[in-house]
Amino acid sequence: MPSSLSLKSKRVRIAAVTAALAAGAGLYTAGAASADRAVPRTDKEIPNLTQVQDKIKAFYGDTVDASGQHYASADSNYAKQVADIEKKAKAHLEKVVKNQVKGKKGAKPAIVVDLDDTTLLTYNYELQQGFHFTPESQDAYLKSTDMAAVFGMPQLVNWAQSKGIEVFYVTGRGEHQREWSARNLKNVGYKPVADTAHFFLKNKQTPPAYLACGAKCTTVEYKSGTRKYIESKGFDIVANFGDQYSDLQGGYADRTYKMPNPMYYLP
């Protein structure tokens, strides 16, 4: 991680420190929506950066392959937490399917899933970059490398589609990353097609007309506005999955599911 952590960065890395320690101490509650930006009075109020990185690695069950690449482990505490969230989500979706089978009429059920650290795991990329995101390094990585799937998410998403639930991908990635991202989703086992009708990315050059904020949308405005648009097409978003609270705020979803991510914070 770099020595200079600017709040102007697209990813507020200092929040990884706060979130990681608070999660371990049970202080980062489900209702927390933003990082603590209070100015420390002394160095004792600042978690040690190296120790935080070590905690993050332990949480993901850091595994190193023969080439020195870092990957998360399927038996890690991270994977276990994800599995618990997925179990609760599937129970909800099973009820949705049952109600549809009974003949309840209305909008067609749909789910919305984010990409980074919701469907695709950025852990290997983050370790390569030392937890220091840049648009250039992300582009280079996505162009040449497939991120691993978040444990269990392809199975959940594919099951939902098989039961008649429409699947929409909504990400903060840029429009120029569409082809790489769609390839990645397909290659790691996601069956719902990431076509233009089901895959939404940020387009700052030519933003869609349904977003009143245009190219200046905040994450919450962009994500909620896109969900509103999806529902205007005759869908009921019965579940919305994201690793950031900004993925989930703003309405237009019956249920929200916060995926774990202590690596970075996006307002």
UniProtKB/TrEMBL annotation:
Provide this UniProt record's keywords sorted from A to Z: Signal
Point out the signal peptide segment. Answer: 1-35
Q: Does the keyword Calcium apply?
A: no
Q: Ligase: is it a keyword of this entry?
A: no
Q: Which PANTHER family is this protein grouped with?
A: ACID PHOSPHATASE-LIKE PROTEIN
Q: How is this protein named in the record?
A: Acid phosphatase
